[in-house]
Amino acid sequence: MQAEDRRFALRNLKLIAVIAVGMVSFFAVLDHFAYPEYQALFAYLRWICAATVLVLLFLVRFRLGKQYFKFFTVALPLVPAFFVAMTIFVTQDPATIYYAGLSLCIVAIGFLFKWSYREAFAVSGLVLLFYLIACSPAIANGLTAKVAAGLFSNLVFLVATGAVVVAGSFSHHQMRIEEFKGRERLRQKKIALRQNAKELQRALDELRETEGQLIQSGKMASLGQLSAGVIHEIGNPLNHSNQALFLLRRRLRQFPEDDTIREAVEDIQDSVDRMKEIVRELREFSHKRSEVLSEFPVRDSLDVAVRMLGKELDDHEVAVDLRISPSILVKGVKNQLAQVFINLVHNAVQAMGKVDTGRRNQIVVSATDAGEHVIVTVLDNGPGIPEKIRDQIFDPFFTTKDAGEGTGLGLSICFRIVEAHRGTIQVFSDGSTYTEFRVTLPSPLVELTMDHSAHHAPSDPQSTSASSSILTASTVS
Known about the structure:
This protein is an alpha+beta fold. It folds into 2 domains: 2-192, no CATH class; 293-477, Heat Shock Protein 90, CATH 3.30.565.10. The protein contains 15 helices and 7 strands. The strands form 2 sheets. It has a 5-stranded mixed beta sheet, with helices on both faces. It has a two-stranded antiparallel sheet with strand order 1-3. Helix 3 packs antiparallel against helix 5, helix 6 (99-112) packs antiparallel against helix 7 and helix 12 (334-354) runs antiparallel to helix 14. The chain starts with a helix and ends with a helix.
């Protein structure tokens, strides 16, 4: 608060100095009418007063003046008061109208300086003392009744002016203290808010980093689960290649030129190409550097998912019907979306493998181009998801599997990936005969910027009948 008082006082000193010099010079006209015999002397006193004020204003500009600014704020209004008292002393007229100049000095204290009531009381008392000293010779020589009445009247007005200024300074000072405390509390709150904002930003950055790590960990977990399927997928082409090579060696010994040999070579080439494609897809899926935005047929990601889950689909006797046109394009990160569909299909396969529904296990995957969005549905005829846990399945670490069988991160990662693509993922189920996951993704028509802001789409009760009809009418492949 003292620093604020210093800034305010130094700013107002110049204003007070200008007012003091201007009023001292302007009121010289009163000397011509009230005391023409002292006009020259009073003009000399006025010049000295103005010069003294300007000297004080000059000195306060230096470092010492700024350090002891209180002295200058007290001295500046007292200089005109002192010279007014000198004019009263010279005239020997206690009832003079010049006492009004002393009132102006007191008023200046109250309005132009933010003083405490103690400072206002001290300076008002000094001004009153100047007036009494100036009147002391006249009082000593004796006063007429009229002059004594004027002196008394002037004293009353000076005391009343001082009392008003002191009371106003006290009230104003208390208000300033409360205002300063309020501003200080507000400043502390702003500091706390900025600190909280920094902590929240730091936490958000850590959350995003953790999210990326979880996605990558999810990929590694998916790769662990899919390793058997990959080995199976690579093993079949290798067996075909070995058989074809065996036949090729035998035929080469018997018939140097034969169509069968040519067909065997083609079989080997096809099998090797198939293995290369599987390895390439596996590498793209597992490496983070392949995560770039692009336009691609959504069926490509689903083909990767079905191919990697091939052995598990065979083991659980689950048929997958892909009803997706290769012409339907989406915009996003191909291997991330492949991870979403791998998780969705894998969860469906595991759910159907645990419960004997009496029906042939099947998954129908379809896609619809809705203009700015592409809607992909993964529909299975498994046991469904109970309503009481349906709102929790996207929560991190929530799982219905036994300990050691799952981490509860699969659907949470799916939700975050779709969310980052500015899409939505919804789940619909009747809790007994089907489960449908509906993934809405941006089409190439939408300018996509990867984002991390959450939005969870509400459930659609109208999907129940439609889902059931799709499963009933599906042709299993």
